[in-house]
Write a structure and sequence with these properties.
By secondary structure, chain A is of the alpha+beta class. Chain A has 2 domains: 74 residues, Alpha-Beta Plaits (2-Layer Sandwich); 73 residues, Alpha-Beta Plaits, CATH 3.30.70.1150. Chain A contains 4 helices and 9 strands; from the N terminus they run βαββαββαββαββ. The longest helix of chain A is centred in the middle third of the chain and has 13 residues. The two termini of chain A are 20 Å apart. Chain B has 3 domains: 169 residues, Thiamin diphosphate (ThDP)-binding fold, Pyr/PP domains (Rossmann fold, 3-Layer(aba) Sandwich); 161 residues, TPP-binding domain (Rossmann fold), CATH 3.40.50; 172 residues, Thiamin diphosphate (ThDP)-binding fold, Pyr/PP domains (Rossmann fold, 3-Layer(aba) Sandwich). In chain B, 36% of the residues lie in helices and 17% in strands. Chain B contains 22 helices and 20 strands. In chain B, strand 12, helix 13 and strand 13 form a beta-alpha-beta unit. In chain B, helix 1 runs parallel beside helix 7, helix 3 crosses helix 18 and helix 11 packs parallel to helix 14. Chain B starts with a strand and ends in a 23-residue tail after the last strand. Classes of the chains: A alpha+beta, B alpha/beta. At the A-B interface, helix 1 and helix 2 of A face loops of B. Bound molecules: flavin-adenine dinucleotide, thiamine diphosphate and magnesium ion. Magnesium ion (MG) binds next to loops of chain B.
């Protein structure tokens, strides 16, 4: 099962290595990872997507929590969250399909952020599924390059992400 | 007055109550050694290899419960600490290791004697620091000692660039610690303690399994009370040896791979396991799905990550064993479990710890341990090397108090025993300290003889010389059809007597059973130099009982 973890850490050099090293050492493969500053300059938030059964995840969660620089660990798997990824997709364009690509981008509420005679760069945010879907639709035109951020999440509602 | 980083370090160590540092100098730690030159109140023990320093600091910590401190230079010096740091990490021993580092501006440039010590140590420490600014130094030392000694103890490494040691500032030692991510749990949950008491009350065949966490918690007295009040028998892990007096009728000795048959049978038949400060190591459980198949489990541990890691638990209690046992003691009563104890005593009679005494094939190593036990009235501090020597020491030296039996359990580091004995003897100058050694292991840190001699430490090194890497040979005998591949070291072993004498120590060779006791007597009379006793023992003696790795109790061999 896939799990999305939020790890709140002290903003120290090396903390990313500590957390990712622990995953590797204990046999977990990180599928995606994003690290960002938070509303508090002393802390950063890591959003980590990993695959593993519930017991294994519980164990890794506790091991991560033991790291001195880790303040909190949440597993969002069972929670209602807002989740987003951002992708930039460089798709090949020709005169005859230019409109179709613009329409798809519109439907997905994406933005064309760079235009040249042979390619567009499309910016798209949303859930992983949504980005997968637009990627599928662009594929027949020829995707030259794609870059995706890791997933970021926040709990829904007024409570904090925990 | 401004002082430099090196002096700030020393002053901070003094504030932490450090009395002894085990170390070895080098280029980038010159400022620290300069500060140590005329320091008062801190003793520096010069070892002969950095691995000796870290094991000695570890032995010191295990003997006292205080944080052990060692010091090494950058690059090669720091790398020589690795085995020792990992040893302390596996056994949850509080250490602070200080490593010199190249100057901050040279970091990351493959500078002379630079190694990425932060990266190398990360997986084998409780925490580590790289100090890049002298203003962070005192706070870092304070945090390091706090982390090493609280919660589940462990080693902490401070990597200290040489320019930070030379930089100067006003010294002030912080009073408070602010680490939002570090909050060990000490109090057990009252509901869970009540649940545990309820389970105990219902049990017909309970066993207590006590481990190294009882040593760390200083909960030996509470544990002993609990056992004697309820009448529940106690087995210990290797790391728990001594937390319950092994001559008590309720003691089952050590359990596990080389534990007593009766402790393993008792665990197998138990309907309740009360596990206190032990982590269900695979040397203890063997095959997990056949371990204690009928038992409910109460698990008391300070580390939440240990709960449910290998064995499913019915009542987890996270917190300090001493606190928890104090509360639990108020909830329990004497139990009606005489039948259960009689059953165990029957196993005890049927499968005692024993060894053949036919006297045909030389001295029995087990008999040597028993003689050492008798002559030291069971009061000596025992350190061990690793292998058969270690297991015989664990089986036959009955411990009566915690911190008496000092051994590398989790990592099983050969070469641990001699430096650990040095650390223990420095910590406890009035105790008799024995290193129970193997002829293979002793050669891994033999250079520390010079440290022992130069500090006039009267440690006794009892080499159980079987001319083999005996424990490995035993496995080859049992599981590899006696193909003794590269384990016979007998022909090329040095003359340990000459070796002792070369270092300025005493050496005694013992070749017959009659010589054992007089030789030990002579060693015990030796009070200002170390003494090596080279016992030529039965070469192919095996450690029994034995449950093969990953096996269950029906695979137990008894002889
Ligand atoms: C050749 C060889 C053979 C071995 N054979 C055996 C064998 O037959 N039997 C055996 O038992 N071992 C054997 N060992 C040792 C084994 O590998 C483990 O080191 C040992 O079993 C671990 O002991 P422990 O479970 O008590 O854990 P430790 O490693 O001592 O861990 C202590 C536990 O207590 C917890 N703790 C710490 N502080 C506190 C506190 N204040 N309150 C509560 N909990 C706390 C920790 O979180 C941890 O979970 C052998 C080792 C070697 C090298
Ligand atoms: C540093 C290290 N290397 C290798 C091993 C594997 N090992 C475990 S026991 C052992 C043999 C030890 O021989 P010796 O010290 O003579 O002890 P004996 O078993 O003969 O009593 C070996 C090689 C180890 N535990 N540690
Ligand atoms: Mg040997």
């Amino acid at each position: 099962m896939r799990h999305t973890l939020s790890v709140l850490v002290s903003n120290h050099p090396g903390v990313l290595t500590r957390v990712s090293g622990l995953f590797a050492r204990r046999g977990f493969n990180i599928e995606s990872l994003s690290v960002n500053s938070t509303e508090n300059p002393d802390t950063s938030r890591m959003t980590i997507v990993v695959e593993g059964d519930v017991a294994a995840l519980e164990q890794i969660r506790k091991q991560i929590h033991k790291l001195v620089e880790v303040i909190k660990v949440y597993d969002h798997t069972e929670e209602s969250v807002v989740e987003r990824e951002l992708a930039l997709i460089k798709v090949s364009v020709e005169t005859r399909n230019r409109n179709e690509i613009m329409q798809i981008t519109d439907i997905f509420r994406g933005k064309i952020v760079d235009v040249s005679d042979k390619a567009f760069v499309v910016e798209i945010t949303g859930s992983e599924d949504k980005i997968n879907a637009i990627e599928q639709l662009f594929r027949p035109f020829g995707i030259k390059e794609i870059v995706r951020t890791g997933k970021i999440v926040l709990a829904r509602g007024s409570k904090n992400t925990e | 007055m401004k002082i430099n980083g090196a002096r700030i370090l020393i002053e901070s160590l003094r504030r932490e109550g450090v009395e002894v540092i085990f170390g070895y100098p080098g280029g980038v730690v010159l400022p620290i050694y300069d500060a140590l030159y005329d320091v008062e109140g801190i003793r520096h023990i010069l070892v002969r290899h950095e691995q000796g320093a870290v094991h000695a600091a570890d032995g010191y910590a295990r003997a006292t419960g205080c944080v052990g401190v060692c010091l090494a230079t950058s690059g090669p010096g720091a790398c020589n600490l690795v085995s020792g740091i990992a040893t302390a990490h596996m056994d949850s021993i509080p250490l602070v290791a200080i490593t010199g580092q190249v100057k901050t501006t040279a970091l990351g440039k493959d500078s002379f004697q630079e190694a990425d010590v932060t990266g190398i140590m990360m997986p084998i420490v409780k925490h580590n620091f790289l100090v890049k600014d002298v203003r962070d130094l005192a706070r870092t030392v304070k945090e390091a000692f706090h982390i090493a000694s609280t919660g589940r103890p462990g080693p902490v490494v401070i990597d200290l660039p040489t320019d930070v040691c030379s930089a100067t500032m006003e010294f002030s030692y912080p009073e408070k610690i602010n680490m939002p991510g570090y909050k060990p749990y000490y109090e057990g949950h009252p509901m869970q303690i009540k649940n545990a008491a309820r389970l105990i009350k219902k049990a017909k065949q309970p066993i207590i399994l006590a481990g190294g966490g009882v040593v760390a918690a200083g909960a030996s007295a509470e544990l002993t009370k609990l056992a004697r009040l309820t009448g529940i028998p106690v087995a210990t892990s290797l790391m728990g040896k001594g937390v319950f007096p092994e001559d008590d009728p309720l003691s089952l000795g050590m359990l596990g791979m080389h534990g007593t048959a009766y402790s393993n049978y008792a665990v197998h038949e138990a309907d309740l396991l009360i596990v206190i400060g032990a982590r269900f190591d695979d040397r203890v459980t063997g095959r997990l799905d056949t371990f204690a198949p009928n038992a409910s489990v109460i698990h008391i541990d300070i580390d939440p990550a240990e709960i449910g890691k290998s064995v499913a638990v019915d009542v987890p209690i996270v917190g300090d064993a001493r606190n928890i046992l104090q509360t639990l003691l108020e909830e329990v009563k004497p139990m009606e479990i005489t039948a259960w104890r009689e059953r165990i005593d029957e196993w005890r009679r049927q499968y005692p710890l024993s060894y053949g005494c036919d006297g045909t094939d030389g001295i029995k190593p087990q008999a040597i341990i028993e003689t050492i036990h008798r002559l030291t009235e069971g009061k000596a501090i025992i350190t061990t090397e690793v292998g058969q020597n270690q297991m015989w020491a664990a089986q036959f030296y009955k411990a009566s108090r915690p911190r008496q039996f000092i051994s590398s359990g989790g990592l099983g580091t050969m070469g641990y025993g001699l430096p650990a004995a040095i650390g223990a003897q420095i910590a406890c100058p009035d105790d008799i300290v024995f290193d129970i050694a193997g002829d293979g292991s002793i050669q891994m840190n033999i250079q520390e003889m010079a440290t022992a001699v130069s500090n006039k430490l009267p440690i006794k090194i009892a080499i159980l010389n079987n001319g083999y890497l005996g424990m490995v040979r035993q496995w080859q005998q049992l599981f590899y059809d006696r193909r003794y591949s590269h384990t016979d070291i007998g022909y090329t072993n040095p003359d340990f007597i000459k070796l002792a004498e070369a270092y300025g120590a005493m050496g005694i060779r013992v070749q017959t059973p009659e010589e054992v006791e007089p030789a030990l007597q002579r060693a015990l009379e030796c009070t200002d130099i170390p003494c090596i006793i080279d016992f030529i023992v039965a070469r192919e003696e095996n450690v029994m009982p034995m449950i093969p790795a990953g096996g269950s109790i029906d695979k137990m061999m008894v002889d």
